[in-house]
Specification:
single chain, alpha/beta, TIM Barrel, eight-stranded parallel barrel, 8 strands, globular, binds SN-glycerol-3-phosphate
Length: 216
């Protein structure tokens, strides 16, 4: 499973990239706004911190505008993936950009039929939003399972990018459901390593090593 980090905070990205566990980055207009930095500048810096895809989202809502913005974003760096919303215009723009060799991440996916449309439009990634479905008492994980089955039935190559991941449990369940990628905030990725029995076990090993005067 690939791990993308969902943030526009370049310090966090650099810190996590140093672990060698990060395969790409996703951003959205809300995350860019939170960074307080100019859009193109922050995307260019993020692209220099990872070789993996960096999702940068358009703000136009009509297909022609999305295509124009998508081409502008794709010029920032070779590893930009253009993020488009799951609307008819977004799907039209997806087809055009994909045909020109520009990878597209279709975002704001909340149903299996939407995911089917994105795959048919040539999306490189589909982003089902798990947490936001859970927020309205629907099952985000069931959506991942449905998309996995549909994509496997027809051998679509679009990668399932589990997004709006809010907890370590979301990560585990997405992996079990066969998501190709998950994107999560830095705090969730960092928390994956935590287990109280690991801490306790290490404490005991170190205390025993000290008592016995073990040196390596
Ligand atoms: O990757 C999508 C993500 O940024 C949305 O997450 O927690 O705002 O639903 P959230």
């Amino acid at each position: 499973m690939k791990f993308f980090v969902d943030t526009a905070d370049t310090k966090d990205i650099a810190d996590l990239a140093a672990t060698g566990l990060i395969d790409g980055v996703t951003t959205n207009p809300s995350l860019i706004a939170k960074s307080g930095r100019p859009f193109a500048e922050v995307i260019a810096e993020i692209c220099s911190l990872t070789d993996g895809p960096v999702s940068a989202e358009v703000v136009a809502t009509d297909a022609d505008g999305m295509i124009k913005e998508g081409k502008t974003l794709a010029k920032i760096a070779e590893n930009v993936a253009v993020k488009l919303p799951l609307t008819w215009d977004g799907l039209k723009a997806c087809r055009t950009l994909a045909d020109e060799g520009i990878p597209v991440n279709v975002t704001l996916c909340f149903s299996a039929n939407q995911a089917l449309l994105a795959a048919k439009a040539g999306a490189a990634f589909i982003s089902p939003f798990i947490g936001r479905l859970d927020d309205i008492h629907l099952d985000g994980m069931e959506l991942i399972q449905e998309i996995r089955q549909i994509y496997d039935n027809y051998m679509f190559e679009t990668e399932i990018l589990a997004a709006s991941i809010r907890s370590p449990n979301h990560v585990k369940l997405s992996a079990l459901a066969g998501a190709d990628v998950m994107t999560a905030p830095p705090s969730v990725i960092r928390s994956l390593v935590n287990h109280p029995l690991t801490d306790k076990g290490l404490e005991i090993f170190l205390a025993d090593a000290k008592k016995a005067g073990i040196k390596v």
